[in-house]
Amino acid sequence: MATVDARVPRQFPTAPSGSSGSNGRATPTIAERADALAVYEDAVQEPALECGNLASLYYNAQDLGSRRPEARVLREDFCSSAIVAQTWVGLDEGHQRAQGVDVDLRALEVARRRATRPGRENGQAPRVILLQSGQYGEGHEARIVEAEVQHEAELKREGKKQEEEQGQEQEQEEERQQKESKTTWSVGATTDRFERRFQARLRRQQEQTAKEKARESLTNAEEDDLSATPALTLMHADVLSLPLPLPPHVTPVAAPDIVYAGNYALSYFHTRPLLIAYLAQVARTLRRGTGCLIVDPFAGPTSWSSSAAEQAALWSAFSAEPGFLRGPGDPPVPVSDDAALQFWSAPPSQAEGGAADWRRWPRGNLVKVRQGALFGGYDYYREDSPLDHASNRFRMSLSFRFRGDGSWLRDYFSYDFRAWSIMEIKEAMHEVGLRHVEVHAIERADESADDDHDDDTDAVPRSPTDDDDDDDDGIEGDFALLGRTERSEAGKKSFRHLKPDDSEKLFATRSFGTYIVARAPE
């Protein structure tokens, strides 16, 4: 699979009833018929618990007498189908507001359809708006994308890209001809150069003016009554392009109380300048003084811990099941267990596809994370490659095996991740002006998930600010009521706050859960 963007899932079309499935089977497999996005959300995301954690982390990060002690506006960066943002709004539709940002327009369309679906407690669907960055359309300002023309937007983007490429080729040809000319004083040359410089300077001025207006509208919206803003604002945009310049008729986007970058999102940034650029954007767009950035970065070693013999047996058993093998050359060659140092290159015939493509990495370590009940029951597997110490990057992919027929949704998401240390992230946050940086950590549930546990009783961590006081009737008590039983609570652990004075050290033999919280500048 050639991955164009690590945040865009592989598309698995549903085979029509009675049609021939893969490998010429008369009946499609469960994997071919399953709603892949629904399985992913069920396996990977727990939005109600996440929203409880975010609200609690924000509350505990505030000073006494804070002018905004409880968060109202959440922005979910790299949101995909924005399930956390939608859950945040659904908890109190009259009070809460949420925003979601992603580069995947189709996932945002799914979020929009869900958010506009009636049937909530008050019988009213929340108001939702989908904005598209000017980089995907025409001009500098964002525009509202109507439901019936959303797919046309992608076509326009492709057309605009082709026009830009043609324009660049034309400019390069003109420059080449000018260099080959014996004199720069050929007829019209000065006028042409002046015009190009003028147009380039004009474009820069327009972009700067648009950004200043966007920041101004963000600041003004901070003090306004949020009743005028949509309950859910979805933004088809690169997170580095925020805030979006808006046309005058569009309601300003409120400065968020919380910016949440979950699911190891910081690992999308492979270089420090890009990480700094993202954190600086967050520092600019958060609500001043009280806003919080909350991230859950990948922490600790990768899951590359099983023996070669164990993994070989696992891959051999699964290779006969439909959908497990991804193509010629699968499974890839693993790294050696015996070599203290090993240089590895993908075979020439396999060195294709995007950076997260399985053919560009050695065989990963398959780990069963948990099980679910959808579509007759499934097992959620994660595959981690060994860490490349030359780049501090590794490959991670998410796959789902359906127990009914052993079929696979293979590599539904594939990531080329940069591993950032907690210290690197903290230093970068301080560099851009974020304040009061705190770290909360927890041991993950055993990733070699037992087959005999209930589907809904995985060891889910409690909120980072939970204690053993059962008399708390605040927001933590409210979230504790969301589908939890005494049995599911019994084995849970709490996040622990790492002391900020360097009096504590943190060691781990495998990956662990963590939140890093930072306050916005004054």
Mean pLDDT: 77
Number of strands: 14
Kindly state the percentage of residues in helix. Answer: 25-40%
The helix/strand class is alpha/beta
Along the chain, the helix and strand elements come as HHHEHEHEEHHEEHEHEEEEHEHHEE
Biggest beta sheet attributes? 10 strands, mixed
Tell me the fraction of residues in β-strands, as a range: 15-25%
How far apart the termini lie comes to 46 Å
Rg over CA atoms: 25 Å
Spatial order of the strands in the main sheet? 4-3-5-2-1-6-7-14-12-13
Shape: globular
Work out the helix count.
12
Low-confidence stretches: 1-20, 149-155, 176-191, 219-224, 447-462, 467-492
Biased composition (Acidic residues): 165-174, 448-458, 466-476
Region (Disordered): 1-29, 114-133, 153-190, 203-225, 446-495
Biased composition (Polar residues): 14-26
Biased composition (Basic and acidic residues): 153-164, 203-216, 484-495
